[in-house]
Amino acid sequence: MQDIIRVGPVPTGHLATEQYVRMRDGVHLAADVYLPDGDDDPGDTILIRLPYDKNGKYTFLPLVAEYFMESGYRVVTQDVRGKFRSEGETLLFVNEADDGYDTIEWVTQQSWSNGRVAMWGDSYYGYTQWAAASSQHPALKAISPRVTGTQLGEPVHPANGERTRDVEWGITYLYPMTWFHSQDAYFWEPDPTVRPFSAQVEQVITRIGSRSISYDQWYPRPVHLRRFPTGSPFDARPVPALHTIGWWDNIAPLSWDDVSEIEKRPGWALNHFLRIESMDHESFYLDDADEDRVAERSEAQIRAILPRMLNPTLEFFEVFVRGNGRPEDVPRVAWNLAGTPGMRASTQWPPAGTHSRTLFATADGRLDALRPEAASEATWAHDPADLVPSSVSDAFAFLLEKPDEATIGDHPGVLVFTGDAEGRDLDLVGPVTAQARIRSDGPVMDLFVRLLDVAPDGSALRIARGQIELSDATDEAVVEVDLGQLGYRLRAGHRLRLHVSSSDYPEFIPKPGTGEDPWSAVVTRINHQTITIGGEHGLAVTLSLRDAAA
């Protein structure tokens, strides 16, 4: 195991004044207050609540606050309970609704506040916005959550009688042992060759000298504490929301789950504005120049991306916080068709005018528009000692590396199916699903399906993916795998390809092959997986298409 790196809070910058905000239970949370040009007259406030250090380089919030101040906003950035300079117990997710309400109430009582509050932020500090919305504070006028979800970080729950469920992310158990172990952050890398993974966590706990209550609530006996004490944010009073999703965000499935919940509630649907960009979780973009794909951006590079990150929010707040302009002029859905410039607008997602096309896997490794009449089988080995590697070192920054995944198809644990070169541009717009009959000689089977764009030079970019776990896997089952939503232009001369496998490590926790809990298993066994090709339930992928001229 590598060294454990401890990271504490960064000093408050010269543009901010640090204050301590009292919560209803007497705990004080550290907050930085930014006033434009020191103006303490009443004005609109943007609140940002996060666990990543309000002054840290990772989130560059002093630069974000400076940008918002240029538009006249007061800005409050706050370390959430138990993190960095804030007091209280370090327990992720469950305190954000009440603490969000109390912080908004504190803001409204300040001399520089006019009583109108909005919120902005990514990931966990997108989640804190949904939590605050659930608290229904009347001063919260609009939110702008990006690359997040209301079920962010929640472990996969038991299937409750169903044979399929999601595959657990590796980050699920590592996050409460890094960012949410205690006030400071601790960074360390697990050794992929050492099992059980849970024992490595215990070694880290011993070396740090204290346990993580956030980890202990989830493992080994999960306690699912209530995230929203007064109920789901989508059952609360609707708040205008600019909801941003990245096509390559690894947690986009959580965002789309929230979209589905919102669409069931007319009040929220009326206040929901969707924005979909060709970016990943860390705001690296598909069209970034090569020199901007760096793990640590310079201040100049950060300042250069702020308009792209923040201007949509400022335009949204201008309407819904300041009352300038008409809500009906804000696009209900603004989206980028990856591989093309600019944003498109539609009244719904998917946009009108889409239709489906199904491609079928064949025994000779092709994807074909015609279903093979005869059914056959393809097999592969899931070897816990030789796992299919994840294509990037950081799943949250896929477009930082923008990997060529063609070589992953060379792994013995991957089946490959490739379509014909397209004769013209093909716009993939809407949901993507895969269907197949599968079984294993092991008790539990993971099925990973990746959709790739293969260029004429042979390089392959992953454009969609999905995965499921099948229990009682010795009994065959017909399954459907949700590969998510897609907005992508496949250029003429390019081909579609499917990669099918049973692991993607370390992004997902690999099955040991024995049916035991993969986090605590010591013994592993090779499983042989089988998928049907052709016939009624042969492997197929269903795409949503739109006329490229639309």
Outline:
The chain has 550 residues and is of the alpha+beta class. The chain is built from ten helices and 24 strands. The termini are far apart.
Can you offer a commentary on this structure?
- The structure is a single chain.
- 18% of the residues lie in helices and 30% in strands.
- The protein has 550 residues and is of the alpha+beta class.
- The chain has 10 helices and 24 strands.
- It has 2 domains: 5-154 and 225-346, 3-Layer(aba) Sandwich (Rossmann fold); 354-546, Jelly Rolls (Sandwich).
- Helix 1 packs across helix 9 and helix 2 (96-108) crosses helix 3 (124-135).
Q: What count of helical segments does DSSP give?
A: 10
Q: Give a short account of the largest sheet.
A: 10 strands, mixed
User: What is the CATH topology of the largest domain?
Assistant: Rossmann fold
Roughly how much helix do the residues carry, as a percent range?
10-25%
Mean pLDDT reading: 96
User: What is the terminal separation in angstroms?
Assistant: 53 Å
The computed structural class is alpha+beta
